[in-house]
Amino acid sequence: MTFDHDQPGETLRYPPRRTQSAQREATLLLAALSSCTDRHSATYVAGPITSGRRFLDWYQAQGASLTHDRQAYREAHLSAVIRPNILYGASVAATLRQRKERVVIEPFSLTVADWTQADYLHFWSEVIEQLVAEVYLLDGWSASVGSSYECLTALSIGMPVYCGGHCITPRDAMVQIDRDRATLDAAGLETAFLARIAKELTDVAAK
User: Fold this and answer.
1) Is the model's pTM score more than 0.85?
2) Where would you tag: which of 16, 150, 153, 186 has the fewest CB atoms within 10 A of its CB?
3) Is residue 141 packed enough to be buried (19+ CB in 10 Å), middle (13-18) or exposed (0-12)?
4) What are phi and psi of 86, to 5 degrees?
């Protein structure tokens, strides 16, 4: 699970760095996944958990008025955004498992106590680099720090990335992220990390 917009104004440094306390757990989790699939063979489903368009709609309608009350914000965010995103992402992964012969990996079911957003980003990027052959992006991915970073990870190593049934290019991804970043900016939300991802995608596209 990644915490893209756990609280407005919280920033994430680029590139994300794993905390020392998460290293052992990440190593064990990666080993467990490696025992279930060959290298570079799995399908990865990337989608927003705490953010995405569902978050933006909720934030503009309700969330912005709750930022003064951290507990109320968290409870409403969980109910209106996180749980529906998790259910949707897990259902898409389940459907893909019925249709594909590949192992399908999704981030929606994993929660590790005390992991930071950077810990999740670092871990899932390692999973993509080592075990995944293709990435499927869910609706709202480009308004999500986690999904956008996972997309960048895949495209940077030449992996096919699919969105809406089409294989997208680094430039396609950059344009979409910039579009959603402008909307997030207009809502007063932090977008510096997404800006760095868009820049990296521009560099990948130029190669």
Assistant:
1) yes
2) 186
3) buried
4) -65, -45
